[in-house]
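Case study 2.
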Amino acid sequence: MGFTLSNQQQLLSKIATGTGDSENTPYFDGWKAFDSDPYHPTTNPQGVIQMGLAENQLSFDLIQEWVLKNPEASICTAQGAKEFKDTAIFQDYHGLPEFRNAVANFMGKVRGNRVTFNPDRIVMSGGATGANEMIAFCLADPGEAFLVPVPYYPAFDRDLRWRTGVQLLPVACESSNNFKITRAALEDAYEKAQKANIRVKGLLITNPSNPLGTILDRETLKSLVTFINEKNIHLVCDEIYAATVFTQPRFISIAEILEEEDVVCNRDLVHIVYSLSKDMGFPGFRVGIVYSYNDAVVNCARKMSSFGLVSTQTQRLIASMLSDNEFVDRFIVESAKRLEARHTRLTEGLEEQGTTCLKSNGGLFVWMDLHKHLKEQTFEAEMALWRTIIYEVKLNVSPGVSFHCPQPGWFRVCFANMDDQTMDVALERIRNFVLQDKEAAVVAMKKKKNCWQSKKLSLSFNNYRRFDEVNMSPHSPIPQSPLVRVT
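Prediction:
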């Protein structure tokens, strides 16, 4: 006997049968288009190039070099096999002490050693996805909300909302001021929530920004701290791209702001989300971190972490790698150099074609402006352009509407998840698209001009005929021309 949809809905939970996972968006649709037709230089050269994945693959040779030099770090080698039993047996969900110490040290190095982190406040989770959900569970009840400046990472709608039941309320940021977060916008979003009888429990920011690739300056960060302190709400700082900043101005962590003498804030309200997915390029290791200044949050999160622990084998390898200060220092510097070179290569290649991006100095992507290629300035036109780019140009870039961008025409383009040859192919495809689009615009303009001239000529001829008929009519009230009378 088969089961109908109605039977399924009765048998399963609302989470299982609902659509709260928020994956029905162009952001995830682009991934599906890539998965069904992935580019390969030899086996599928006409396939879709993945430019929707924010992954750092530019420095894997440094990682591989370290692994070869340190075989004892892995229990899967002859040199590390003697540690297999102690690694494989049950471990406390606090995490290995050497792992937490190494991560705390790395977080400090990434921030220029201007601040230090207490290993006892580090809680591990299954990637930043798990860390974000964990902090949402700790801070808010179903129906309560976090303010989030737009544009923001599309998967936040899934990661923070799906199982927790919390709401995300947008804070308006405009392209006219490079999407900066203003106190006025924060107040406006907060007041709207109050009027809608929605309790705001916190403000969530990403610094460096995903998708903008920009960083928050010191004054903005101080303004945010003042705002949350006055409202007595939490501040969650997603800093997973901290080590991807490759030029000045440098990255400033919220941890630095809390150390400044003129900053007054209840530290219990401040929490940092971190991971090794972006800075080290380890998304497959699922190393996520919640660092909270609130003891109660640390205790609760640590208990919840048992639902998404980092494997002990991974902890052991990471602890060994991140404890190698010489390697870490070299990696941070070299990774930034390579990211800068790739960023420059992409942005200059786009500029040669007349395509600009928001000025940025961090992240693994650029925020590309294609509004002049829209047939009209609407999100429907943006989606039409996106479908052309996906299915005809064969590039998976992510449209701004997925990020809740308030203006159409913006696209996030990732640049660190491919080799130089693939980047060249991608740029060539963009170049061809821009040229074809310009040629099509010229043809359309000529047709429009010819049509207008044809109508004008037709209108002029018809007016002449009407005027002539009126003058020649015996019933015309207008006196006939003297020349007509003479003939």
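The longest helix spans residues 420-472.
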